[in-house]
Amino acid sequence: MTRRLAVVSAGLSTPSSTRLLADRISDAVRSQVGARGEDLTVSPIEVRELAIGLATTMSTAGLPVAAVEEARTVVERADGLVAVTPVFAAGYSGLFKMFFDTFDPHALAGKPVLIAATAGTPRHSLVLDHAMRPLFTWFGSVVVPTGVFAATEDFGAPEEATGLGRRITRAASELAGLVVATPDAVAGFTPGDPAEVDDTDTPLSVTSFSDLLRGHDGTR
Q1: Is residue 158 assigned to a domain?
Q2: How far apart are CA 9 and CA 117, in angstroms?
Q3: Helix (H, G, I), strand (E, B) or coil at 49
Q4: Interval 30-35 mean pLDDT
Q5: Are 175 and 80 in contact (CB under 8 A)?
Q6: What 3-state DSSP class applies to 45?
């Protein structure tokens, strides 16, 4: 079976360290999905290329722009998402946020997401848990436990010195496991499931307040 992975990269330059990190992660996810016996189609989305369309969309009360609609559809239909942003002023970039502001609040519910970020120094690494993870949690997405942060010094440095490759592999493995998993509903928990318990005719037993206090000596 072929799975679909959307990779959103919000780097502003060409070439971009953000895109470089996104490519390394998507290659790792493809390898991990392949190790599980399935294929993966990767669809990269450069948010920088959507800047004008995003500005139009946001300033015209959601007037559809073809390029933005296409990118949004790719993300919504994907089995998994990799979201990578550069860090500005201790947070994700404005273009990154603007892109996800165009989504319906329920569009990414349940979607497996791997978050990653790049910055000049390691002191910005908290952006993963203080900004990106809350954003996708609000959407109801399933964010993998391992986020990937890469500072400038991580690129080109020996792997044993940075551990970046190990973090990428671990995060990619977590995402691949969710992407290839087939969700099985538990009987009784799916709306409309015949096994759902109907207790409308069951009398409700309520313990009175006096019975709850019976035997209480007032010392505690």
Answers
A1: yes
A2: 9
A3: helix
A4: 97
A5: yes
A6: strand
- Nearest in space to 82 (alpha carbons), one of 3, 153, 12: 3
For residue 197, tell me if it sits in a domain: no
User: Which helix (H) or strand (E) is 27 found in, with range?
Assistant: helix 17-35
Which stretches within 78-207 are classed as H helix?
94-101, 127, 133-138, 159-162, 164-180
Any domain includes 205 = no
Give CA–CA dist 117/6, Å, rounded: 16
| CATH at residue 170 | 3.40.50.360
What confidence tens digit (pLDDT) does each residue in 149-190 have?
A: 999 888 877 776 678 999 999 999 999 999 998 554 334 433
Least confident of 7-16, 36-45, 169-178: 7-16
Q: Say which amino acid occupies 135.
A: L
pLDDT (0 to 100) of residue 188: 41
User: What is the C-alpha to C-alpha distance for residues 21 and 85, in angstroms, rounded to an integer?
Assistant: 10
Structural tokens at position 50: 């959507």
Establish if 169 belongs to a structural domain: yes
pLDDT computed for residue 89 by the predictor: 86
Domain limits for position 68? 2-180
Number of domains in the chain: 1
- Per-residue DSSP letters for 73-105? HHHHH-SEEEEEEEEETTEE-HHHHHHHHTS-T
CA-based nearest residue to 16, from 155, 139, 126, 167: 155
Q: Which amino acid is at 113?
A: V
102 contacts 72 by C-beta, under 8 angstroms: yes
DSSP H/E element including 41: strand 39-46
